[in-house]
Amino acid sequence: MGRKLEIILGPTGVGKTAYAIQRAREVGSPVISCDSRQIYKELCIGTAAPSRREREQVKHYFVRCIPITRNYTAGIYEAEALALVNRLFAQGHETLVMCGGSMLYIDAFCYGLDDFPEVPLQLREHLMECLKEDGVESLAEQLKELDPVSYEELDLSNGQRVIRALEVSMYTGQPFSSFKTNTFKKRDFEIVKIGLERPREQLYERINARVLEMMRRGLEAEARRMLPYRDLPALQTVGYKEMFDYFDGGCTREEAVRRIQVNSRHYAKRQLTWWRRDEEIQWIPVE
Q1: What whole-number distance in Å separates Cα of residue 93 and Cα of residue 169?
Q2: What is the pTM of this model?
Q3: pLDDT tens digits for 189-214?
Q4: What does the pLDDT look like over 87-109, one tens digit per residue?
Q5: Which H/E stretch holds residue 193?
Q6: Do the domains 4-114+186-198+279-285 and 121-179 sit in the same CATH topology, yes or no?
């Protein structure tokens, strides 16, 4: 097949960025980010986006390149990342390096997404408001009635995923799960998935330390700048949600930091649970 793309994946905090940069330099490739939050210009500290120094070592794509107000989806990423990869292969690259921890974006790139119907923006905005006022549990109960299959399959703590399944079910009158065909799109290049892993205790220590480093670097100030946009899907994520709750008086600063650490560890666990089902991944222990 000749052309090969290596995807460096793994849980948050495991050390993907450093590993991907080293590998990219070895094979003469840029790093193609596959992260649904690092793509936004305004989100730097809270997403652990590659630093300027890291981006100077090797060219990065899809890092801090679109405004927070743009509605960016896994489907858009699939199309744009594929176009970029094909262009880079046409320029003479034989091996390319992709790096990220966003499970849906990686699956979209590798296998493609099913074609779901477009939903009116007003319905999505209404459900976002319901999420804000009533919490994800209320939306999950509605989803359970309309689409019990998706209710069993989805991560019900992820408000965006619940809203996506619910809005399609409500708008079409058919379960979101009924639109899934599970037909994989064929790529004309080899994909090698490399998973990085560490002992759980070591990984959790790294996550806790990284959150403290984010606070030292100015996560609180970054989150305050994002307050006017707090209801956008991009900000329904660990690090910013906890800070917003602190700004609202819902917890102390110390408690917000502790929650970010706990929720980051939970997210890492969900990532590993998702990827352990993928037998194509070659797991590599890192020090």
Answers
A1: 43
A2: 0.82
A3: 999 999 999 999 999 999 999 999 99
A4: 999 999 999 999 999 998 999 99
A5: strand 190-197
A6: no
